[in-house]
Write a structure and sequence with these properties.
Elements lengths: L1 H12 L5 H54 L5 H7 L2 H4 L5 E5 L5 E4 L12 H7 L4 E5 L8 E10 L2 E11 L1 H51 L14 H33 L1 H16 L5 H33 L7 E3 L1 H18 L3 E6 L5 E3 L1 H17 L6 E9 L2 E8 L29 H11 L3 E7 L3 E9 L9
Parallel strand pairs: 7-9
Antiparallel strand pairs: 1-2, 1-5, 3-4, 4-5, 6-8, 9-10, 10-12, 11-12
Helix pairs in contact: 1-6, 2-6, 6-7, 8-9, 9-12, 10-11, 11-12
Length: 482
């Protein structure tokens, strides 16, 4: 009991690290990572989409201006074209326009910005190589991000300068920020919903598990009468069934233990009292009182035999319960055992005036434990004689049937009622009108037959008689048998 209380206190201390906490935490962590990765990709591709549209627009405009220059003004030096035809370069766009010579000197800026140093940007160098150059970043005279698209100006297929279109990304970035805020808000909502669902799912798992745990703690504390209500047919449901079954088995074993103690204390007291009483009486009887002396010795002998039988049954019972019993099987002619049993039980039948008939056909060799089968037959015949009155009959039959050896013990005794019949092989069960000493005889017989992989069946009717059917499977081994 104290150990169970310690377990419950320890479980309460570790509740902060419960399955519910870990389950919800892991669930939220997975959802958070998924949402962050998904939104990062979503924002990235949205930004790419908007920036790509701006780039395509500037590219189309700058190509138009560059092609127009190459077609109509390429025969005139670049500086003269700037003076005479400056409008040609920016009439295609609303962006800031720059014209740069091959050294990086800005010849023209549509907004009038002056550059003291030559340009050295990546987009400019790409344009010098005859391809489009694109760069995104800040410029010295503004605070917002800008996109710059550079394109070569050619004369006779030779690059003579670079045309640059620069546009502010302020409005695009503003739209992107708003879209990002929407995405983040949706992500937060998803996390809240996921957390709520996680809590519900965790509760649906942890709550029944907690009920099972609480019940298991009570069982550990010694309360084996408690039963857990099964609510679902899943792993927790199977755990519930297992714990309930365990409690039932422990309760049964506790009952068996109590019955065993009660039986030993009660059944052993009677013969011991008789032995002690007669021993004390005989110690005071004169040697010439032979009749009393003989009666006392006879009673002491019978009670000693009774004690021996009870002790042997209790030892057998202990061996079966602990699983330490083993069979010493050997190839046997069962008809020899039947003949031995007939000779042993015949005097008892004569003494009790019961007609005893034995029928044994030709039986095949079978592998079994001779002593244990003798024990079963003697016990069954002993019960048959015990419950059969004088002038009645007891019949022992043995024959071969469908790859099995069948042994039947039939009597014309008092019989067994229908409500008692299913329980007669239970441990310590004696029945209402039983003359049994321990209530273990038939239980031990049933265990022995089961160890032989056979079956023990009872057919009975009150005031008509009882028939016991033993079936043993044929396990014949011809090797070494002559």
């Amino acid at each position: 009991m104290e150990e169970g209380i310690k377990i419950m206190k320890r479980n309460k201390r570790v509740s902060s690290n419960s399955i519910k906490t870990r389950l919800v935490g892991n669930f939220i962590f997975i959802i958070l990572i998924s949402v962050v990765v998904f939104e990062a990709l979503l924002i990235y591709f949205t930004r790419y989409y908007f920036y790509n549209n701006v780039e395509n627009m500037l590219t189309n405009q700058i190509k138009t201006s560059s092609d127009f220059y190459s077609k109509y003004f390429s025969n005139v030096p670049l500086e003269e074209n700037i003076i005479d035809h400056v409008d040609v370069f920016w009439q295609q766009t609303s962006a800031e326009v720059q014209i740069v010579d091959l050294t990086g000197r800005v010849l023209l800026d549509s907004v009038g910005v002056e550059y003291k140093n030559p340009l050295n940007s990546s987009d400019f160098h790409d344009a010098l190589k005859g391809k489009k150059g694109v760069s995104i970043g800040k410029i010295s005279y503004g605070r917002d991000n800008v996109m710059t698209v550079s394109y070569p100006l050619k004369s006779d297929n030779e690059v003579v300068g670079v045309l640059r279109f620069i546009t502010s990304l302020k409005e695009v970035d503003k739209v992107l920020r708003n879209i990002s805020l929407i995405f983040i808000s949706i992500g937060v909502i998803v996390l809240v919903i996921a957390g709520t669902i996680g809590l519900i799912l965790a509760y649906s798992i942890v709550h029944p598990l907690r009920e099972v745990t609480n019940a298991a703690e009570l069982m550990a504390g010694g309360n084996m009468k408690i039963r857990i209500k099964k609510k679902r047919d899943d792993e927790i449901g199977r755990l519930t069934d297992t714990l309930n079954y365990m409690a039932e088995e422990v309760e049964k074993r506790e009952e068996i233990k109590n019955d065993f103690i009660s039986l030993v204390s009660h059944e052993l007291r009677t013969p011991l009292t008789a032995i002690k009483g007669w021993a004390s009486t005989l110690s005071r009887v004169d040697s010439n009182e032979k009749e009393i002396f003989d009666d006392g010795l006879t009673i002491i002998e019978k009670e000693s035999d009774r004690l021996t039988v009870m002790v042997e049954e209790l030892l057998d019972f202990s061996s079966f319960v602990s699983g330490k019993i083993t069979l010493k099987k050997e190839v046997t002619d069962l008809s020899e055992i039947i003949n031995y049993i007939e000779k042993q039980m015949r005097p008892k039948a004569v003494r009790e005036d019961v007609h005893f008939e034995v029928n044994c056909g030709e039986l095949p060799l079978v592998e079994l434990d001779r002593d244990r089968i003798k024990q079963v037959l003697i016990n069954l015949l002993g019960n048959a004689f015990k419950f059969t009155s004088a002038k009645g009959s007891v019949t022992l039959n043995a024959f071969n049937e469908d790859q099995s050896i069948v042994i039947t013990v039939k009597d014309t005794g008092c019989g067994i009622s229908e409500d008692e019949l299913p329980r007669i092989t239970e441990k310590f069960y004696k029945g209402k009108n039983s003359k049994a000493q321990t209530g273990l005889g038939l239980s031990i017989c049933d265990e022995i037959i089961k160890l032989h992989k056979g079956s023990l069946t009872f057919i009975s009717k009150v005031n008509v008689g009882t028939e016991v059917i033993v079936k043993l499977p044929l396990e014949i081994k011809n090797a070494g048998v002559s």
